[in-house]
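Worked example 4.2. Below are the chains of a multi-component assembly; read each line carefully before continuing.
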Amino acid sequence: MLYLKKYFTEGLIQFTILLSLIGVRVDVDTYLNNQLPPLREIILGPSSAYTQTQFHNLRNTLDGYGIHPKSVDLDHFFTTRRLLNQVRQLDRLSVPSTELNTWLVHRDSETVVSPSSQSGPSITLENGAGLEDVNNPDATPAMRGGSGAPESTYNLNAADSSLGAVAPEGNQEQGGRDGNDDLTKEDIDLIDILWRQDIDLGAGREVFNYSNRQKENEEEQKPNPHESKDGNEEQESWRNGVNLQGVQPVDGETGESIPEQLPGIGSQTSLSLQECLRLLEATFPFGEESEFPAPVVNREIVSNEAPSTSQGLPLAPLLPSAEPQLDLEQQWQDIMAIMELQAMEVNNTSVPTNSSSVNGTTGTVESNTVGNFELSTGSTPVNQDVSLHQASLPSCSQDFPQIFNPQLDSISITPRTTLPRLSSSNSSNINSTFGTTNLTGIFLPPHINSSSNNITSTPILPDPFSTLLEESMLDEISLLDLAMEEGFSQAQASQLEDELDSDSGLSLDSSHSPASPSSSETSCSSAASSSSTSATFSEEGAVGYSTDSEVTTVEPEEGAVGGYQPGYSKLCRMSYQDPSQFHSLPHLDSISHNHTYNLPLSSAFAEHPELPIPTGKKNVRDKHNSKLQTHQDLLDKHASRDERRARAMKIPFSNEKIINLPVEEFNELLAKHHLSEPQLALIRDIRRRGKNKMAAQNCRKRKLDTIINLEQGVHDLRRDKARLLKEKMEFIRSIRQMKQKVQSLYQEVFSQLRDEEGRPYPPSEYSLQYSADGSVLIMPRCVTTAEQNRKPEKKQKDKKK
DNA sequence: GGGCGATGTCATGTC
DNA sequence: ATGACATGACATCGC
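Applying the procedure described above to all three chains together yields the following structure tokens:
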């Protein structure tokens, strides 16, 4: 069912994306808000009112442990978690409201009124969780559990916003702000600050024109969280009217860079290219990659590159590139893989409270975004928390290279009807990015189709914001890893250790999720018996096969400690030490598995011959059926055949001794007693079988350990995979950032170049190229393309270096 | 009554 | 050679 739901949800999302791409507005909100339980439950999961089976796994969570799946305490539990998360987020620079609030802010700024003009639908549509709340005031946070990955959201509950969005209380607190009624003074102040920032950045109020916004909203209403995220980021960047990257003025309509708008450039005549490059290198933090990236020739890109004042034409649309989409798809798949991983791990991974604390350790600004991402991972599309937090960033412009600051004002006012798209996130291009000698390839990366669903590449974003966003997203992934990792190894391990100390191990196992066989078992093995190499041996020592002296004295304990204990492997705890425990568990009364191979029955019999020893199976069975087993009954019941045989044969010592004594002592024992041949044969058989029994137990335990270790290995590999994916995205992000910087610097340098007559070089006709010796040439494009393979010997107008 | 898991036992191989 | 151990296969038991 879970898979069904997942597939259906994904399919629905994809279908919705498709519809959105072809211009059909898909108002998921209405569907969801119309209270179509099946659909909503399929997408968001059943509410706790219907079923809470999804929360069985909460037993594996730290906080959820001990809460019965059907306990009404669940709601309390989630409320507690939500509040706890809020407390944890106090140390973060985060606006308590969700992204919805951001929309509110801007929408209100449009009307220059209070945030009360917020439009619920478009926003809530972006937030599936919010949707749920809107029409389901009764819906408790527990409902989120129905999303199929409840722990995922709670695990990494940096997504406290998600909680709040879902929880009724959260609606009052956060959604309530959505309702504009509960704006606190801080909120209003923040709104005002944000608005003033926008104004300062040159974004006029017309920027927030409602029609534009609505248009954009339609784009953003695509269920695809990443896409809408893109849109949001784009809006944010555009709203700020600045390329926050600071490096590149952008035509608001085309996304094309507009070097001519750089103030002062026009007055600068023939700035030395070397100077420019020095400037460029000084400002361009290549970091480890350091060396100025080998320029690349991307012909398509180059041909389309023509950022000129006169033109101001949309170049981006001229660059339809299938590759970026492929890459986007790839990255999307990666994300989905991570999500799936998470979903898979959800059952295995307890919801570690630490994860939230871990979130708390992440960047203050990013935390909420992280949370949102989590929310989206919970199978609910969306989340655009970003813009709010971005907007709340103090002095984000400080990240800009100082030299670009002058551009801000002029650029920010740039009218814009479409979202600027600055960079590509083409991972496939990345490989070729620094390969050849044409800088334009890097400097003018292909513009991505606006409809592309690129999670990782949110190229439109100005750098500081995009950086923050991407980092937050990546941190999200890392948190995911952490949740998978630490949630499993620490929280769950410790929890299971607690379980080992509790009597609830059996019942826990009964609710054991089939999807998480390894988790408990692994933890059990780690906690109880650990690896087969360490604890096993110690246990074997305790068994006493080798320590003769202990055999007689420690016998009573052997049954509980000895060798292979199925209770430890399967139930984490099922001990015969205290049989009375079973009486407290009525449903276990009838359990009569023979776990007593190490119990000192025979020894007890040997040392207390007066004890009645069962003489036949039938007798034992009768007692089984009686279910009124006394302690003695249990002992009798577990008398092995060999013990009965030994008694029948009047063997004068216990089977324990027969089995566990070292050979020498065993032989001495035999010699000490004058035994008949049948007695000797029986004793030897008993010893053989007894040893083999323990050997079999150990063997099975080893098998189990092996399986557990393999499962752990699988888990580790999955975690590594997620980590590698995260790293990959980080690399992609950094490369994209570098490309953006290089591009803007290229524009900067190129725009300042002047020929002998002081005229600028038209970018459509010239491009910069690196030569092999490190010099930079400005070459005509026709030559560039025609003589790409030749050594550039042409147009050595400005030769640098 | 059969399936299934846990356990015991045997046969065999290895050290 | 012998004892201890490991392990696959099968049997038994109880649910």
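Take a moment to check your reading of the output against the notes. The beta strands of chain A are 766-770, 776-780. Residues 93 and 442 of chain A are 35 Å apart (CA to CA).
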